[in-house]
Specification:
Blueprint: H1 8-28, H2 32-57, H3 61-91
GO biological process, one term: ATP synthesis coupled electron transport
Main location: membrane
GO cellular component, one term: plasma membrane
Length: 104
């Protein structure tokens, strides 16, 4: 069987595309759950870039750093979902425009 090697620019282009989609999702959407999913997409794009460069340079430091990013993303998701549940219990909405917690 022939080994197919995907060149590095394809991985970097795909990572950049995922990053841009995530940034657009964070900036344009008002639903808290969609914003959290967009942040996760940004972190996964960074992980893809780190692992791609790590494989290309034959160095494990990028993969180790990606594991730390995965741990941070998991904790961010847990804290974010806890905040979403607390927000929904208090305001009965997921829309960020309807929530103004600093108003008396």
């Amino acid at each position: 069987m022939e080994d197919v090697v995907i060149p590095l620019p394809f991985y970097l282009t795909f990572g950049a595309l995922l990053f841009v989609i995530g940034v657009i999702g964070v900036l344009t959407r008002r639903n808290v759950v969609i914003v959290l999913m967009s942040i996760e997409l940004i972190l996964n794009a960074v992980n893809l870039t780190l692992i791609s460069f790590s494989h290309y340079l034959d160095d494990l430091r990028g993969q180790v750093f990606a594991l730390f990013v995965i741990a941070v993303a998991a904790s961010e998701a847990a804290v974010g979902l806890a905040l979403v549940i607390a927000l929904y219990r208090g305001k009965h909405t997921f829309n960020l425009d309807d929530v103004n917690l600093l108003k008396w």
